[in-house]
Amino acid sequence: GADRAAFMVTLLNTAKLNDVDPQAWLADVLARIAETPVSQVEGLLPWNWKAKSARSAA
């Protein structure tokens, strides 16, 4: 239990440190991760997700 909680806190804080809305990021990643090829998983990391979101919004 505590290990999972620590893991989740780390993920959410990493998103915050990268100026990413943790809730939006996590919801999007959870919706897309099952269909994302292993070679593209890096795109789901907060710092890469932020850049992709910014391009999509423009």
UniProtKB/TrEMBL annotation:
Residues 10-47 form the Transposase IS66 C-terminal domain. It holds the Pfam family DDE_Tnp_IS66_C. This is Transposase domain-containing protein. It comes from Roseibium aggregatum.
